[in-house]
């Protein structure tokens, strides 16, 4: 594993082979019965202990997360790690809350009741951008529901997932419930996604790979949950607080060096505010401190790999050919590490690559709109539907934007914050199903209807619909 800021080796990691996936799935299957049969309170106690141990291991988790991803240490300390600990804690509590319809005599002749049962063995595949949070978002609701898990973290960033599994064992999670296979997506990931021995496949990553994973799971009819790419619109109406919108755009676009599926990527700004917005964002972008992610003064770390930086740079270089105007940035920084300056591209065409495709780097593109209908139309002019924001002081505009923008999350006068109690998940090419919140727990539970006769009669009324003579 390579530190993307320095090019130095962080750790050597064994690469699993597809045969190891068989062993991990068998281990998860063997452990399932007892874990699914534990009481909610027993599961909750283990997860609460895990939250405590993860909190105590904060410094280790931060160090691993920064060195494997290159994310600024401030972000890891104030967002990734405390957010993950809180999420673990949330699912420790959620494990004890199974919801359903009340048992009742709906037919008059039977008592109907609902059981919530663990789906079974869950295969999980996660990306490199928020390795710890993505592992927690997938594994914790599964464990809370009583499932056992086999997770394959991204080959580039397995460290914090392995630490999480080690802490779970220390917290008392029985052997075999939480299995990690390190390795590459093309072989180990594919073997896991298409494994006949699992019951469900959950995935976070790109839309293209997510669809491949879904196809592999469909081969066996397995339940899937997909959190995929995004291209979030950031809509600034003409009554918005311009300063707040400028600051929000900078933070929303540059978080995690823009390698964030919900990042603000398409600024769609009222014509009257457009020039000032572009000038304001351009000015703050040019002052952002790019450098050593271990330094608490650093705002922006490197991109994950040189190959990824080349992809981002290539998209920016092609933008002027499609009408875009690079206001600031568009420059790779020399030296070790895959650094790239914050980049603002104005006046982009709706058909242009940088407007339509996920860039996944510190790049914001901007366009103006004429009226509210045009703003909503542009916001929705995308295959993605993960997140969006609307900036306005008019309550009716805010309500309309939250109603009409097609995305799994719409922020009003902010962009990015998430919270354990509320769901995260997309529409359209951004996937389906939810991470975080009680909704996510439900992804990992099957609903069973138990219908018990209460008449004791051998000759039941409804039999006459089938036969009359005996
Ligand atoms: P990716 O290339 O799709 O990889 C995601 C995971 O899938 C990695 O573990 C990867 O393994 C594995 N993989 C690759 N090919 C596979 C295959 N054929 N079968 C099974 N697994 C396979 O995504 P990424 O580049 O890591 O992450 C960036 C993407 O994730 C962006 O599109 C971003 O928007 C999305 N994302 C979405 C959310 C969300 O909540 N919606 C959150 C975070 C990120 P290796 O990398 O080890 O080869």
Automatic annotation (TrEMBL):
SUPFAM superfamilies attached here? ALDH-like (SSF53720)
Any Pfam family hit: Aldedh
Q: What is its EC number?
A: 1.2.1.19
Domain of life here?
Answer: Bacteria
InterPro entries, A to Z = Ald_DH/histidinol_DH, Ald_DH_C, Ald_DH_CS_CYS, Ald_DH_CS_GLU, Ald_DH_N, Aldehyde_DH_dom
From the Swiss-Prot or TrEMBL record, what is one GO molecular function term?
aminobutyraldehyde dehydrogenase (NAD+) activity
> Keywords of this protein's UniProt record, alphabetized?
Oxidoreductase
The kind of enzyme this is, by top-level EC class, is oxidoreductase
Q: Which residues form the Aldehyde dehydrogenase domain?
A: 2-450
Active site per the UniProt annotation: 227
Per the record, the similarity remark reads: Belongs to the aldehyde dehydrogenase family.
What NCBIfam families has UniProt attached to this entry? PRK13473.1 (NF010000)
This protein is called Gamma-aminobutyraldehyde dehydrogenase
What is the gene name?
prr_4
């Amino acid at each position: 594993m390579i530190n993307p800021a320095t090019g130095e080796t962080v750790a050597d990691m064994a690469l699993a082979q597809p045969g190891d996936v068989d062993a991990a799935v068998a281990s998860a299957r063997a452990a399932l019965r007892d874990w699914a049969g534990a009481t909610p309170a027993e599961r909750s106690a283990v997860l609460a202990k895990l939250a405590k141990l993860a909190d105590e291991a904060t410094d280790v988790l931060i160090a691993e997360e920064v060195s494997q991803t290159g994310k600024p240490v401030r972000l890891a300390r104030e967002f990734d790690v405390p957010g993950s600990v809180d999420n673990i804690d949330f699912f420790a509590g959620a494990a004890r809350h199974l919801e359903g319809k009340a048992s009742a005599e709906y037919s008059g002749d039977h008592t109907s009741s609902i059981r919530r049962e663990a789906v079974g063995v869950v295969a999980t595949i996660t990306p490199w951008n928020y390795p710890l949070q993505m592992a927690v978002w997938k594994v914790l609701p599964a464990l809370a529901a009583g499932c056992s898990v086999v997770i394959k973290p991204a080959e580039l960033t397995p460290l914090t997932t392995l630490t999480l599994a080690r802490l779970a064992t220390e917290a008392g999670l029985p052997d075999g419930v939480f299995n990690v296979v390190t390795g590459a997506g093309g072989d180990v990931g594919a073997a896991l996604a298409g494994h006949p021995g699992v019951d469900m496949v959950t995935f976070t990553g790109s839309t293209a790979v997510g669809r491949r994973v879904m196809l592999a799971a469909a081969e066996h009819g397995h339940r899937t949950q997909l959190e995929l790419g995004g291209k979030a619109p950031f809509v600034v109406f003409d009554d918005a607080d311009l300063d707040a919108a400028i600051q929000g755009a900078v933070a929303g676009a540059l978080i995690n060096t823009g390698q964030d599926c919900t990042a603000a990527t398409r600024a769609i700004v009222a014509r009257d505010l457009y020039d000032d917005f572009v000038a304001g964002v351009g000015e703050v972008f040019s002052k952002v401190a790019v450098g050593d992610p271990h330094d608490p003064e650093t705002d922006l770390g490197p991109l994950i790999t040189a190959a990824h930086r080349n992809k981002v740079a290539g998209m920016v270089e092609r933008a002027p050919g499609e009408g875009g105007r690079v206001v600031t940035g568009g420059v790779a920084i020399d030296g070790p590490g895959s650094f790239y300056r914050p980049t603002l591209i104005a006046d982009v065409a709706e058909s242009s690559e940088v407007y339509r495709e996920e860039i996944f780097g510190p790049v914001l593109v901007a366009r103006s709109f004429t009226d509210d209908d045009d703003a909503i139309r542009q916001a929705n002019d995308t295959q993605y539907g993960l997140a969006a924001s609307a900036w306005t002081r008019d309550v009716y505009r805010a309500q309309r934007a939250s109603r009409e923008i097609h995305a799994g999350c719409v922020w009003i006068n902010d962009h990015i914050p998430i919270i354990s109690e509320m769901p995260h998940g997309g529409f359209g090419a951004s996937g389906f199903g939810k991470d975080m919140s009680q909704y996510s727990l439900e992804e990992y539970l099957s609903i069973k209807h138990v219908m018990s006769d209460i008449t004791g009669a051998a000759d039941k009324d409804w039999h006459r619909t089938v036969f009359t003579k005996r």
